[in-house]
């Protein structure tokens, strides 16, 4: 397997597919194959492509890590440039109320905003997704180290992420690489790591 920086255009579709396949319920839980990627991949590779890295094997890209250097600036740019066309493409009530898509369409119209008390110390944030064929082989740690070095070189003092309460494997991985729990809720937790 090869771990390398993201290549604009070449890797986009594969990253969207990985986001879908590793999303809640997997790819069979969604009729729209682009929606999750539009939320959790697209704005990162558009606004902060220098903080995107992928794992590639003989079958193609099989995992990625992406980040926003400055969460507040990222949120602002999404509001100005990314969400408006998506709100046109995905109006509220685009999907049946009981569908998985409905929850994520609502997020396009009312995007979550990171808590002030987190971004003051951990202004960057990240997402990492690996297909099963890449998991458990150390590539998550390699991707994380590449990203942390890039964020450190760019001057970030800390990075945070969100993880679902039931995702015990991911929580264990994040603890293993040095993240600590910053806050918890019934549905998940925020975790952070100081970079310098």
UniProtKB/TrEMBL annotation:
GO terms for molecular function: acyltransferase activity, transferring groups other than amino-acyl groups. Coiled coil: none annotated. This is GNAT family N-acetyltransferase. Residues 1-196 form the N-acetyltransferase domain. It comes from the Bacteria. Keywords: Transferase. InterPro entries: Acyl_CoA_acyltransferase, Glycosyl_Hydrolase_84, GNAT_dom. It comes from Phytoactinopolyspora alkaliphila. PROSITE patterns: GNAT (PS51186).
């Amino acid at each position: 397997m090869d771990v390398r920086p993201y290549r604009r255009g070449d890797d986009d579709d594969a990253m969207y597919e990985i986001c879908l396949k590793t999303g809640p319920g997997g790819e069979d839980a969604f009729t729209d194959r682009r929606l999750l990627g539009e939320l959790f991949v697209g704005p990162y590779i558009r606004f902060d492509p220098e903080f995107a890295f992928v794992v590639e094997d003989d079958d193609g890209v099989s995992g990625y890590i992406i980040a926003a250097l400055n969460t507040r600036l990222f949120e602002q740019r999404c509001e100005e440039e990314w969400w408006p066309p998506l709100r046109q493409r995905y109006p509220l009530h685009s999907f049946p109320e009981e569908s998985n898509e409905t929850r994520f369409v609502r997020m396009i119209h009312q995007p979550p905003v990171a808590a002030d008390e987190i971004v003051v110390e951990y202004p960057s944030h990240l997402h990492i997704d690996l297909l099963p064929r890449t998991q458990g082989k150390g590539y998550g740690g390699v991707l994380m180290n590449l990203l942390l070095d890039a964020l450190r070189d760019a001057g970030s003092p800390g990075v945070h992420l969100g993880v679902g309460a039931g995702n015990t494997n991911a929580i264990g991985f994040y603890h293993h690489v040095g993240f600590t729990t910053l806050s918890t809720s019934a549905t998940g937790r925020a975790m952070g790591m100081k970079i310098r």
